[in-house]
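Shift notes (night). Ran Cyclin-G2 while the centrifuge was going.
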Amino acid sequence: RQRNAKVEDLWSLTNFFGFATETFVLAVNILDRFLALMKVKPKHLSCIGVCCFQLAARVVEEECNIPSAHEIIRISQCKCTVSDLKRMEKIISDKLHFEFKATTALTFLHLYHTIVLCHTSERKEVLNLDKLEAQLKACNCRLVFSKAKPSVLALCLLTLEVQTLKSVELLEILLRVQKHSKISDSDLLYWRELVSKCLADYSSPECCKPDHKKLVWIVSRRTAQNLQNSYYSVPELPTIPE
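Came back to this:
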């Protein structure tokens, strides 16, 4: 549960900084690979998550767009220092042997999506890649999908979307993709049911979606009092003539 909550925070951070879906997916990948190797205390998870986010951003984003460690800490409110982040980065780097790049489900999703569009006679906008990426991010918020093969998870998302569209042509193309990728029917069926349930839960009104979450600023009582006083002390500006 704590891992899932931290991934949702990474999703919110990705949206805040305007980073690509690839940055979020890679950050989750780095986080899950590290957690698979190390037992960590819950109090350290926040610092680990922010560090994974920073490492992923360095791989994917333009260097000029990457915020400083101080700014990431301030926005995420992870309650760690820049020194803590540097120490954690060294630990993660050593454990992963500095191998941050990875072939993720997003990689296969883009690949399969391109293949389908190249072989279909239907309208190109039928398969909405943005929608598929959003569904993948929802799956990444569940720990269980860290155990799924990236190729299988990507194919499950595409297959479910094609079934919704009720397109025989697209389904036949995906069957050929499945055969070429050597994905068994049993694997596809097992993970497709889990993906279907996850997306159903995610689309329900009761679900608090990470992409709709607002950043919550935690301030002291004294700061809040000062902010309130300064608000009332701001003089009214004169009306600007047209």
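The chain has two domains: 1-96, 105-203. The two ends are 56 Å apart (CA to CA).
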